[in-house]
Structures are given as C-alpha cells and as structure tokens.
Amino acid sequence: MKRFENRTVIVTGGARGMGANHARGFVAEGANVVIADVLEQEGRTLARELGDRAIFSRLDVTNENDWDATVTAAEAAFGPVSVLINNAGIVRFGVIEETEPATWRQVLEINLTGSYLGIRAVTSSMREAGGGAIVNISSGAGFTATFGTAAYVASKWGVRGLTKTAALELARSNIRVNSVHPGGVRTPMLATEAPNGNSTAATRAEAGVETSAIPRIADPEEITRMVLFVASEEASFSTGSEFIADGGMLLGPVPQDEHATS
After folding, report:
1. Which residue of 72, 74, 108, 246 pairs with 183 in a disulfide if CB–CB is 3.0 to 4.6 A?
2. What is the rounded end-to-end Cα distance, in angstroms, of the chain?
3. Nearest alpha-carbon partner for 160 in 83, 242, 232
4. What is the C-alpha separation between 7 and 133, in angstroms, rounded?
5. What is the per-residue pLDDT across 179-205, written as a single tens digit (0 to 9) for each?
6. Catalytic residue numbers?
7. Parallel, antiparallel, or unpaired: how do β-strands 81-86 and 132-137 relate?
8. What's the CA angle centered on 42, arms 37 and 47, to 5 degrees?
9. Residue 245: which H helix or E strand, with range?
C-alpha cells in the first residue's frame, strides 16, 4: 500500500517549482491532491497532467475566503484533509533601510501569515479525518541571517515558531506539525532578480554553496522526498521538529584544504 493511499493533500504554491514537484510526489504515493495557487493556468495544466487524483483551487494564501473555498473544494472532491503542505513563498531583496514597508508586509503576509491561515483553515477538517500532518516549508534562512533579505529571513524564523506552537496546540487532535528547511533549490524562485539587476537569487545561491559540505544546489525531488517522509506515518513520533535539507550549509564552510586540521 502506498504511503498516502486515498488521503487528501493540499499543496500551496503547488502550480510550479517545488510545490509542483511535491504534488507529483504525493500523487505517486496514492494521494488525492489539491494544487492550490494563484497561478491558474499553470495549476490547471498540472492538475490535468496528474489526472483524476488532482484538482486545482485558486488560492491566495493571504485571503481567508480563498482558504475556506479551497478546503471546501478538497472535501467535496476527495473527503476530509489529511495533509497540508504550506509551501507558498516569495523572496524580495534589499537592505532594511531600502526595503519599503509594503514589500516587508507582502513577504510576511505570504510566507508567514499564509501558513497561519492554512493551519487555521484545515484544523477542523483534519479532526474529522481523525488526525493529520502539517508541513510548513521554512528555509535554512530560518536558522541564520542572509544579507539583504530581512523580510524573508524574518518570515522563515517566524514559521519555525508558528510550527512549534501549532504542534503543541494540535497534539491532542492527533495532528503533527513540523517544518522543513531547504537550502538552495533549483526552482523559478532562483530566477528572481536582485535590486541592482546584476545578479539573481540563483547567482547568490550558487556562490553560497561553493564551500558547503555538499557544494551544489538541490534538485526539487530531493526536498520532496523529505516532505513525503515528514508528512507520512514514517515520521509518526516527530512533531514541532525541524528537518533540514541544506547540503550542510548551516555547518559553516569547508576549509579549502579539506584535510586541514585545527
């Protein structure tokens, strides 16, 4: 039996990039998947590709009404929600003094408030299902600082705290809540241009991993495998926990001479 046979899964930001890969992974494991995104054309195309086990629901993660409609659509098509993957997220570049308040709020609203609204929206449905798993996609930046991305970093630290509090509150409802913290992943987000127009997130990420223990950017499939594990019963004794998939970036740089000793 597949790990998510006939279970209902919502993946936010599911129309492309890492989210689309997660959707494919869950369908391959027997799940019924709701691809939730503001990107309607891409989301509907992916749903058609995945067949009868997938539907698209237009979801702006900052909008409570959209959340209610998405959960209702999930229940109507497949039954109560068992898994929520809070994957939707954006990054904006700029040092703090040059970051407009509107940009700050946009990043926090999508990356952090969106996850809060998602947890809030699915809780009742998960109780009806007898329990479930929520996986919040944070980042390696949720453990450290990165220059010129204050809003992104703050949002991803916030997701860690939200995850732990939700895990405590929902434990007796048999709902596990964990966070996954990727490093650089090869997705459309890495095409985002920095303000000076001379670099992209991809350029920064490639440069940032050169001295990591695993000196490369991840493929989306590598993060999906982690997400599937955390959401599955294989991780049944983990809640409020952080699962890191960053190629060892948080360990610090490997010395140029890898055999160097202190």
Report:
1. 246
2. 50
3. 242
4. 11
5. 999 999 988 766 554 555 545 555 555
6. 152
7. parallel
8. 80
9. strand 242-245
